[in-house]
Each structure stands twice: as structure tokens, then as C-alpha cells.
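Reviewer 2 asked us to include a model.

Predict the structure of this chain.
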Amino acid sequence: MTVISPSSAQAARTYPSISLLLPVEGHGPWRERLRHLAATAERRLREEFGGGVDRDLLRSLHDTVGDVEIGVATRSVAVFVNASGSWVVPLDVEVRERVVVDDTFATRDLVHAESRAAGYWVLALSLDRPRLWQGTGERLVPVPWAVATPVEDRRDPRSRRGRDRSDVAETRRARRLRAVDVVLGEVLAEDDDPLVVVGAEPSLSHFLRITRQAGRVEGVVRRAPDADGAALARRVQPVVAEVLAERRVAALRELDRAISGDRAVWGPAEVWLTARRTNGALLLVEEDFEYPARLLLGGWLQPSHEPEAPGVIDDAVDEMIEIVLARRGRVVLVPAGSLAAHGRIALVARERR
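Predicted model (C-alpha cells):
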């Protein structure tokens, strides 16, 4: 069993690709329900391929299911199996229990997990021991980093005789915070997740004035940071929730502007065609929207009421998500009803330069 990242799952394309999606809480023990999903996937494959079913694939499916282990904070688990390998992804959100057999893995719930439990950074600001954490959902993982103590602050305190103590303290604070900011910029250089800064006054206000990462700071907690990672995670959760909600609102506003500028399409059929032909900048999808469909000549989609039938794409929404992400676009899942006037799914085109 190997844990796979969302991007790797989206890149593993071959038919049949089996996705088992299971909420940990449900009717009956989760292991038993997961084995039932595996049996359902096997039945579907045997119905489609008969005696030509790939026995190695079935063996890999059942072996992977047998090896699954989950953590205390895991709310759901996704199992992905195809001819290329087998993977397991623990999720921080509750998924709908189901089996998907397609030429790509069902990555909607991975995107949902990243949207609902999006990645973020927490800077626990202090002069003596500034710490940086990387967060996902309600979990924080410490990031190894080293903030060098400025040379002036390593000198013998006796060399400061004759200077006002408050002046010395303020000068030391400024040098230390600049050093923190330099290292922070290096760590965050290739990442665009939001940054939450936790710190006590006056260091917090001073840092917010001088930091070069001001555009990245989307949340602030004005109090001394908790030393324990779990306590700190609980402390920042309300702020993180607000940040994610604001990002969803911003995405909907971006869609409105794109519609006014004739840079958006909506509805499953139009989004499907446009996503396959162009590099979409932003895909918005209602979080509970699914669209089983058949692919017709000319690339058009025809909705189907039989998602498990051979030749039917279990959920074309997953396919569209994967296409947009593979072309370095963004995907934002929005609450049900947000896109009721736009067929529940919309795509914003990249601006022309």
C-alpha cells in the first residue's frame, strides 16, 4: 500500500481505474464495508470483461483493501487501483460511499478535501523561537527551518551599556523579525497557500508592517501562540474557515466578471468541450454535483441515468476537474445551489495578454 498525492492520482490514467470511496462512520464496521465495495468493483469488472478480467488487478484490489490503515483524525478513505499500482488516500472530509470504475480515478473528494481542508501555513511568531507550521484541515505539521540570530544580537550585552533599554529591545526586535521574514519568504516562494500569523503585541504589529509577505497574510490571531501543535491548530481553525469562505466568494465574483467579459462557459456539455480544447483558468463546481454521461461522436456528452453501465463515464465532473488541474488551472468547490443559474458547473477562461 502506498499513499498517493492528489496530483499523482489525477495523472494515473488507464482503464479500468478503480476508486473505492468510504466514510469511516457508517452502518457497520468500516473494514467490512470497504471489502463490500471491493466485491462490488470486482462484480462490475467481471460483468464487463467476463473471462478476460485482469486477475492481477483483482488481486491488487483485494490486497490493497486488506492493508488499509486509518488514523484517528481520518473521516474517510479513498482506495485507488489500476494496472499502474495501488494507492490509499486518507481524507479529512466525509465522502459518499461508492465505487467508480473509469479511465481516471475519482478525484472529486481529493479536491473536496483540499478545498474544505485546504493547505495553509501558520507562523507562530515569537522573538526567541519563531515556528512555522504547515496545515491541512485540523492538523499542523512543524516545518524544519532555521532563523539565524542577527550578529548584533549575539554580541556581549555589556557592549550595549549606556543605551536606553527600550531602544535596545526595539532594535533587537526589528532585526529578529526581519530575519524571520527573510526565511519565511524562502520557504513560501513556490507555494500560494494562505498564511495565518499568530503572535502577541508589539511583535505582531511590527512584523505585519515590515513583512514582504503582506499579500500572503490572509489571517491574523492576536495572542501568544500555543506551544502545542494541536492546541495551535484549534486556535487558528475559525480564521482558516473564514479564509476558505472568502476564497469561495472571490471565485464566484471572478465568475461574474468573466461572464460580463464573455470569458466563461457553463453547464456540463459546454464546460466539457471547452475544458478539453482550451486551458481553463478556474473551474467552479457545486460540491454535490455529479454527471454520469456517455461520450458521443464529436466529443459531446450525453447524460446517462445508469452510471454503472459499460461505456458510461461514472462522473464526468471528475474528468473535468482532472483536465483543468492537469493544465494548471484552479478548481473551487462551492456550496450546492451557488451555480443553480449556470448548470451547476462553470469554467472561466484565461485572460488574453
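The mean pLDDT is 86. The longest helix spans residues 229-260. We have added this to the supplementary material.
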